[in-house]
Amino acid sequence: MIKVTNNGQIIINRGAEFGVEVGQSLVMVSEGEELIDPTTGELLGSEEGDAIGTAKVVKVSDKVSYCDITSGDKQPEVGTIVKAAQ
Asked: Which of 25, 40, 49, 80 could staple 76 via S-S, CB 3.0–4.6 A?
């Protein structure tokens, strides 16, 4: 997620180029803990965080989409992971 607007929408950095469509349901997920190899110190990835809310796509352009928050955290932090609901 790249921005929370003053009117309670979120803007995500995925649009029509990635197959996002108006009406699509999304889940907002907190960042999980980083997974670091204890032997090498190499960053291996991150755990998936907890679901913190849901959103619905209301407007799509090529590169970004505007979404109404439908439940949960009404002021998620920039960088919150947003993915398709299953």
From this structure: 80
Maximum Cα–Cα distance across the chain: 47
**What are the φ and ψ backbone dihedral angles of 23, each rounded to 5 degrees?**
95, -10
Q: Is the Cβ–Cβ distance between 79 and 67 less than 8 Å? A: no
CA 13 to chain centre: 9
- State how far the Cα of 8 lies from the Cα of 10, in Å rounded to an integer: 7
User: Is CATH 2.60.40.180 the right assignment for the domain spanning 3-34+44-84?
Assistant: no
What is the distance between the alpha carbons of residues 8 and 41, in angstroms, rounded to a whole number? 40
Overall pTM > 0.70: yes
Q: Is 52:80 a contact under the CB 8 Å cutoff?
A: yes
pLDDT of res. 48? 83
